[in-house]
């Protein structure tokens, strides 16, 4: 069984609302994705994702009946914390979480699309760089970028990464790519919906860390 397919995301309803309980249960399994990256340097992203999930869950558990969807949480925090919002609570945590989720999405989509370095076809560095540049780079200052540049150099071999995604099982690359594409069917629209929500609510912040 593919690591990704053990906990798939649901198809979104027509209004693109995201069920908070199911989202938290499903996304909680994603940090293990970074264990497949080999280098401990990627644990920075893993730790960030875990921390933001914990913050969102803490808010949700205060009133599960009130916070049925992620949209409910963000709107409620906007009303309760007008002066500080959106740099507050679960709204801020979800803002950073979605960037980590986008990193995973772009990396997997790049692999599924067949992007590769023709001179080093068994490297996934080109895929990791694409994901970092599209999802995280603009929000990182010089110091953090330096750390991630080291992480990019430590990206695992393609074959090792795909084997790790397959939980060590010997799976053909074709089958592994099929699993990635299946995972992305509902994962990508979920990530896109969070981004759209932040745009619609004017909740996006561009400060760097």
Can you tag this structure with a few keywords?
209 residues; mainly alpha; 8 helices; 58% helix; globular
Explain how this protein is built.
The longest helix is centred in the C-terminal third of the chain and has 28 residues, at 173-200. The model has no long low-confidence stretch (mean pLDDT 93). The radius of gyration is 17 Å and the shape is globular. Helix 4 packs antiparallel against helix 8. It has eight helices and no strands. It is mainly α.
Task: Please provide a brief summary of the model.
This protein has 209 residues and is an all-alpha fold. The chain has helices at residues 20-27, 43-62, 70-80, 89-112, 125-135, 142-153, 158-165, 173-200. The protein starts with 19 loop residues before the first helix and ends in a 9-residue tail after the last helix.
C-alpha termini separation: 37 Å
Question: Percent helix among the residues?
Answer: 55-70%
> How big is the Rg?
17 Å
Work out the helix count. 8
Strand content: under 5%
List the helices and strands and how they pair.
Elements: H1 20-27, H2 43-62, H3 70-80, H4 89-112, H5 125-135, H6 142-153, H7 158-165, H8 173-200
Helix pairs in contact: 1-2, 2-4, 4-5, 4-8
């Amino acid at each position: 069984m593919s690591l990704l397919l053990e906990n798939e995301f649901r198809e979104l309803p027509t209004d693109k609302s995201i069920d908070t309980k199911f989202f938290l249960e499903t996304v909680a399994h994603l940090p293990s994705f970074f264990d497949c990256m080999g280098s401990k340097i990627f644990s920075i992203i893993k730790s960030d994702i875990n921390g933001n999930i914990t913050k969102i869950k803490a808010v949700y558990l205060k009133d599960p009946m009130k916070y049925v969807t992620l949209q409910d949480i963000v709107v409620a925090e906007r009303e309760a914390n007008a002066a500080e919002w959106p740099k507050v609570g679960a709204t801020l945590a979800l803002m950073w979480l979605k960037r980590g989720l986008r990193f995973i999405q772009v990396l997997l989509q790049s692999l599924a699309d067949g992007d590769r370095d023709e001179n080093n076809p068994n490297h996934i560095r080109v895929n990791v760089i694409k994901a970092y540049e599209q999802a995280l780079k603009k929000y990182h200052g010089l110091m953090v970028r330096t750390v991630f540049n080291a992480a990019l150099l430590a990206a695992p071999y393609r074959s090792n990464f795909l084997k790790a995604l397959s939980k060590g099982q010997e799976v053909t690359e074709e089958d592994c790519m099929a699993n990635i594409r299946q995972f992305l069917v509902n994962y990508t629209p979920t990530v896109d919906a969070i981004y759209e929500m932040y745009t619609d609510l004017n909740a996006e912040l561009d400060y760097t860390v």
